[in-house]
Amino acid sequence: MSRIAYVNGRYLLRAEASVNIEDRGYQLSDGVYEVCEVRAGKFVDEGGHLARLDFSLNELKIRNPMSRQALGIVLRETVRRNRVCDGFVYLQVTRGVARRDHAFPAKPVAPGVTVTARSVDPAANEKVAADGIAVATMPDERWARVDIKSISLLANVLGKQAARDRGAREAWFVDEKGFVTEGASSNAWIVSREGKLVTRPLGHDILRGITRTTLMKLIAAQGLQVEERAFTAEEACGAREAFVTSATQAVMPVVRIDGRPIGNGAPGLVASGLRRDYYQYAELT
Ligand code: PMP
Fold first, then answer.
1. Counted domains in the chain
2. Is 285 inside a domain boundary?
3. pTM, two decimal places
4. Residue of 37, 39, 143, 185 best suited for mutating to test ligand 1, as the one with most atoms within 8 Å of CB
5. Last residue of one domain, picked from the residues 120, 143, 178
6. Edge-to-edge strands of the sheet including 10-13?
7. Residue 106's pLDDT is what?
C-alpha cells in the first residue's frame, strides 16, 4: 500500500488524499494516465512514458500541467516518500474541476494531477513469469482511439474481469475480422511457426506500448526477425510461443490461449530470453 499521494501540488497521507467531486476525471473519465516501472530505485523508460503522456494530453487538448522536468521531480519525490525501490509510479492528469457538462469548460481550468507509487515483490513477478500466464480472447469493444492512454477503461475492466472469470490473467481483444488487437493492459505478441516475432502494427487500435518500443530495440540488436502485422487468435493458438509486454510485466510468456496450450505449454525460449535481456535495452534513470 502506498502511504503518500501527490494531489494537485501537495503530498498527502493517502488516507486523507482526495479530489474534488466535480473533477472531470471522476465525472467523465476525462483524463489520461501513465504507469512507469521503478526497478532497483531507477525509473524504466521515463522519457518514453512522459513523451506518450504529452501525446495523450495533446490529442485530448488537455493543458500540460507542468514541465517534464518538474513532473520528473514530483514522480521521484512520490517514489521516495513511499520508499519504493521496486514497484510502479502511477500518474494521472485530468482536465480539472468544472461544473458537470460534457463539453470542455468555457474558461480553461487547471488540470488535476495525482501521483501514487507502490512497491512490488520482484520475486513474485519472476515466479509468475516462470510459469507463464493464460489469456482469454474476446471481442474488442473499446472506442476507436485506444492509442490515447485515457483513463476511460471500462471495456478493459470488463475484459480483464471476464478473463479472470475464465481462469486467465489477461484478456486478448479480437477485432471484427478475427485479428488480435492487444491485451486489456498489454501488447500482444507471438513467435510464428516460421520463428518470426509478430505484433500488430501501430495505429489507433492499439496503445504504443513503451515496453513494445524498447523490445523492438532488443529484437533488432539480437538479429531476430520481426513482422509488424496483425495475427488471428487462431494463428496465435498454433504459434510456437506467445507473450505480452507492459511496464508492469515487462515480457511475460503466455502459455495458454482460451485453454489451449501454446507450444509445449511452458514459457518459450524466445520470450524467456527477451525477458532476461529486456533491461539491457531499457533506459534506466
Ligand atoms: N496496451 C494497453 C491497453 C495497456 O493498458 C498497456 C499498459 N499500459 C499496454 C498496451 C502496454 O504499454 P506499456 O508497455 O507502455 O506499459
1. 2
2. no
3. 0.97
4. 185
5. 120
6. 10-13, 4-7, 112-119, 87-94, 31-39, 42-43
7. 96
